[in-house]
Amino acid sequence: MENIRDIKKHLHEEDYLQISKITGYSRDYIKNCVDYRLNNRLIVIAAQEVMATSTTF
Fold first, then answer.
1. Residue 4 and residue 33: Cα distance in Å, rounded?
2. Of 7, 19, 20, 42, whose Cβ has the fewest other Cβ atoms within 10 Å?
3. What's the pLDDT band for 20 if we cut at 50, 70, 90?
4. CB-based contacts of 2: which residues, under 8 Å, 6+ apart?
5. pLDDT at site 57
6. Is residue 1 within 8 Å of 44, Cβ to Cβ?
7. DSSP for 7-26?
8. CB atoms < 10 A from the CB of 34, how many?
9. How far is CA 30 from each of CA 35, 43, 57, rounded to the nearest angstrom?
10. Angle at the Cα of 53 from the Cα atoms of 5 and 42, rounded to 5 degrees
């Protein structure tokens, strides 16, 4: 997954808090980026990391 559109389909509400801890961005900012498809590379990378760890359990 390389952009916000792909990631939006797979994020759960608790994932936003984990992404916030990784990036330092607020949960609301991350949610706005995802909702309005603002492609922030750091958020994409953090979301990929969160989804990778959540699917292994």
1. 8
2. 42
3. very high
4. 44
5. 45
6. yes
7. HHTT--HHHHHHHHHHH---
8. 22
9. 9, 7, 24
10. 45
In tens, the pLDDT along 24-56 reads 999 999 999 988 888 788 888 899 899 888 765
From its phi and psi, is residue 38 left (phi > 0), alpha (psi between -120 and 50) or beta? beta
- CA angle, residues 57, 55, 14, in degrees to nearest 5: 95
d(CA 29, CA 10): 18
Structure tokens at 54: 């959540």
Q: Which residues contact 30 (CB under 8 A, 6 or more apart)?
A: 16, 19, 20, 23, 43
